[in-house]
Amino acid sequence: MDYYKVDAEPKYIQVVSEAYVVITKLGYAPVVDVIERRTSTTKALFISASSLSVQLEALREENGGKFNGLEFWIRKASYEKTARYVIEQD
Predict the structure, then answer these.
(1) N- to C-terminal Cα separation, the chain
(2) Where are the domains of the chain?
(3) For the residues of 43-55, what is the DSSP string, one character each?
(4) Closest among 19, 66, 69 to 45, alpha carbons compared
């Protein structure tokens, strides 16, 4: 599976799985599968970054404890590699 790259341009995505782990060169990392609405492609989104996981956890709790089915706009606050993630809902 390909991995989803988030940049400063907002993209609308839908989560289509529950969290699972993949092996990376640094060890295991949590991901969820997402579909980008514009391209209809499915990719895995890493969800371990603190700025992303805190926002996702609030949405997951509102969604009955499930990641699957969440829909939101996602972007980074700037083009810097270490920029914070920003999630917005319609």
Answers:
(1) 28
(2) 11-88
(3) EEEE--SHHHHHH
(4) 19
The SS3 assignment for 3 reads: strand
pLDDT digits (tens, 9 = 90+) for 20-66: 999 999 999 999 999 999 999 999 999 999 999 999 999 999 999 99
> Smallest Cα–Cα separation from 78: which of 5, 3, 9, 4?
9
Q: Name 46's Cβ contacts closer than 8 Å, sequence gap at least 6.
A: 3, 4, 29, 30, 31
Q: What is the pLDDT of residue 1?
A: 74
Instruction: Say what the pTM is.
Output: 0.92
Write down the H helix ranges in 25-87.
50-62
Residues ≥6 apart with Cβ < 8 Å to 18: 32, 66, 67, 68
Would you tell me how many other CB atoms lie within 10 Å of the CB of residue 19?
A: 18
